[in-house]
Write a structure and sequence with these properties.
Number of strands: 17
Distance between the termini: 58 Å
Strand content: 25-35%
CATH superfamily: Metallo-dependent phosphatases
Bound molecules: fe (ii) ion
Shape: globular
Largest sheet: 8 strands, mixed
Order of helices and strands: HHEHEHEHEEEHEHEEEEEEEEEE
Structural class: alpha/beta
CATH architecture: 4-Layer Sandwich
Number of helices: 7
Helix content: 25-40%
């Protein structure tokens, strides 16, 4: 009799959603909602590329980005190297969808047609899923699901407007009163030590240091290769804090990623350093383009992220995890 009553009661509770699994779900939802007040509450995947071109390889990279379930694309300069900004915009919209959120910042090759590129980027950054302030394609500060992405243009075009100091100052000011739990910097050019080809000292150290001081992951392009540093507490001195692939980002320590194989070409390695944790270039066998993907909010923890660099043939060249302590 009691057994029958217990069974009937259990069935009624299960139907009403009052069983154990129901309360677990409720607790999970509650904790996610609580965490979301600060920032990210969903898993969010961001892809980082640069140096695209407009060829088959470029389109393969964009298809990979779409297929990987990416929520936001960040393009760190040097778009289509030609004279077709409208075609460049259409290529993205056709492959990714018209309302796909994209943040893009100028590269040195984008100067001649900058007046045509900039309105396209402005329109993209006005996407309702993004909250951007500043000047689109140049000095831009965007929030996406609680993640802050700050773009700048050190030494991009040859006027004072694009000076190294101005970019460093913009980064400093953009993160000063920001309470996002993830911060990301995006700019095109590099310093020689922060790329694996034969690019010189161009961006200045200041912008790297300001990003690192803010605990922002630093993403760049310009050299057509992929490379990711260990955790550094000085970018200028290449001071490695840890050789682990599980890293904690906080004010004063961060990593540098060069992700410049968006489709235009893949170059040989000409320059190495003990500070690189992973590299993919023509010398060590990268044949086609690829993208860095970072997924934030892993396992319901908004401060946890995993990243990987994947080429268009789905080979994974680098994998690391990040924890934010901002
Ligand atoms: Fe470039």
């Amino acid at each position: 009799m009691y057994k029958q009553l217990f069974a009937i009661t259990a069935i009624i509770l299960a139907l009403l959603g009052c069983g154990d699994s129901g309360s677990n779900k409720t607790n999970q939802t509650k904790s996610l909602n609580t965490l979301s007040t600060k920032s990210t509450n969903l898993t969010t995947k961001i892809a980082f590329i640069g140096d695209q071109g407009m060829n088959n390889s470029t389109k393969e990279v964009l298809k990979l980005i779409k297929d990987q379930g990416t929520d936001l694309l960040v393009i760190n300069g040097d778009f289509e190297y030609g004279d077709d900004p409208k075609g460049w915009a259409k290529m993205h919209e056709r492959i990714l969808g018209e309302d796909f959120p994209i943040i893009a910042v100028a590269g040195n090759h984008d100067e001649p047609l900058w007046k045509q590129y900039q309105p396209i980027i402005k329109r993209w950054q006005e996407n309702p899923k993004l909250d951007c302030t500043g000047v689109a394609g140049e000095y831009s500060s965007c929030s996406f699901r609680g993640i802050k992405i700050v773009t700048s243009v050190p030494d991009i075009f040859k006027t004072e407007r694009y000076s190294r100091q101005r970019s460093a100052k913009f980064v400093l000011n953009s993160f000063k009163d920001d309470n996002s739990i993830w911060r990301i910097c995006g700019f095109h050019k590099n310093m020689h030590a922060m790329q694996t080809g034969d690019k010189g000292d161009e961006s200045g150290w200041e912008v790297y240091e300001e990003c690192k001081n803010a605990g922002a992951m630093i993403t760049t392009g310009h050299e057509h290769a992929y490379a990711r540093s260990y955790l550094l507490d000085s970018i200028e001195n290449q001071s490695v804090l840890s050789y682990s692939n599980d890293m904690e980002l906080k004010e004063g320590q961060s990593i540098v990623v060069l992700s410049g194989v968006g489709g235009e070409s893949v170059r040989e390695e000409k320059n190495d350093g003990y500070w690189w944790a992973a590299k993919a270039n023509a010398t060590n066998g990268l044949k086609k383009g690829g993208a860095l993907f970072c997924e934030y909010g892993i396992s319901g923890d908004p401060r946890s992220a995993t990243c990987y660099f994947m080429d268009v043939d789905h080979n994974i060249w680098d994998r690391f995890s990040l924890r934010s302590n901002l």
